[in-house]
Design goal:
Blueprint lengths: L17 E5 L2 E9 L7 E5 L6 H9 L2 H6 L4 E5 L20 H12 L7 E6 L1 H12 L4 E7 L8 H13 L2 H9 L2 H6 L2 H11 L4 H9 L16 E6 L5 H9 L6 E6 L5 H4 L1 H14 L5 H21 L23
Parallel strand pairs: 3-4, 3-5, 5-6, 6-7, 7-8
Antiparallel strand pairs: 1-2, 2-4
Length: 333
């Protein structure tokens, strides 16, 4: 089994995790955190254009999430050929579909003795983990799905994609998928970094082709009925309507919907708020005792005060408290 590093963000770009061979090519994985008997492993899967580090680095570097992850192991999975420094695929290479990427996951989890997971996926990664949940419901205890679009791309979407490709580069289409128009115009550092990564040459176009030609996820009311789901989408994200439609297809007693302002990638632009949401999500699953939540809240309060002066056992209730997200006061900044 892979050696675990104490709670830490994904490895920085250029640093190595472990490489696992799958029927669809080599996959880079890194395992961090602290495993606990009887608890699921948190598994992340990034969006098109991202590595685990660029997609989840800001979120897992947040101090309060790192404190929470002292009670969980975390497995960061990069799609085949998407890790930093991966050799380019030859022309005509047939990249696996999103459905095949979902079917690939058991071959990654089983050698690591991972029996159950809480999935955190963004965009294409959210689709893959949700599909895995449909294929293997016994292995998925919860899903955090950011900017998910569960719909198939029909022939009109295909035609629009082809027409866009005549005037817009693949890299620009990927950036338009990831970020809002305001972000692209302002070009903050995280947008510039993604643009530079894409321009430096990656295999992202292969995954983008599969994402743009995906089939329908197959969500129906009740087929994830025992799996709590937290849907998250950026307020101005191009995926708002798709996330709303996904919400309508899920069990309302097991699903919470969180729309976050300021950007299309909440895990990058709003790690504090997403951490707060994830804490309540895990608490609703019965994995965070009230005492632990209080300790985390005190840690946040102490941190804020310092900054200002310088300048349980599993339960069966799995419904996220809506009063803490969206329906009540805003999560702490």
């Amino acid at each position: 089994m892979m050696e675990l590093n104490e709670a830490a963000p994904p490895p920085a770009e250029g640093k190595q995790g472990a490489v696992l061979e799958t029927p669809y090519g080599s996959v880079m994985v890194s395992m961090v955190g602290t495993p606990r008997p009887g608890r699921p492993t948190i598994v992340t899967f990034p969006d098109v254009g991202h590595t685990s580090s660029s997609c989840f680095g800001a979120l897992f570097a947040h101090a309060e999430l790192r404190e929470l992850l002292r009670s969980f192991a975390v497995l960061h999975v990069d799609p085949p050929g998407m890790q930093q420094g991966a050799p380019p695929y030859p022309p005509g290479y047939q990249y696996p579909s999103l459905e095949q990427l979902a079917s690939m996951l058991p071959g990654i989890l089983q050698p690591l003795h991972i029996n159950s997971i809480i999935g955190i996926g963004v965009g294409a990664g959210a689709f893959v983990l949700a599909k895995f949940g449909l294929l293997h419901p016994e292995a998925v205890e919860g899903l955090v799905l950011v900017n998910i679009d569960p719909k198939a791309k029909g022939w009109m979407d295909w035609a629009a994609h082809k027409l866009s490709g005549l005037t817009t580069s693949t890299n620009e289409m990927i950036l338009g998928h990831l970020f809002t128009q305001a972000e692209l115009a302002a070009a903050p550092p995280y947008v510039q970094q993604l643009r530079q990564r894409l321009e430096s040459g990656t295999n992202s176009a292969h995954l983008w082709t599969m994402y743009s030609s995906r089939g329908d996820l197959g969500l129906q009311r009740g087929n994830l009925r025992r799996c709590p789901v937290l849907l998250v989408v950026g307020d101005d994200s191009p995926h708002v309507d798709a996330a709303v439609e996904c919400n309508a297809k899920l069990d309302p007693t097991q699903t919470s919907f969180l729309k976050m302002a300021d950007g299309g990638e909440p895990q990058i632009t709003q790690p504090a708020k997403l951490t707060e949401a994830f804490k309540y999500f895990v608490q609703g699953m019965g994995y965070m005792a009230a005492s632990a939540m209080t300790r985390l809240s005190r840690s946040r309060t102490a941190s804020v005060s310092s900054s200002t002066s310088g300048e349980g056992e599993r339960g069966r209730s799995r419904t996220l408290s809506r009063g803490s997200l969206g329906g009540g006061p805003a999560a702490p900044q």
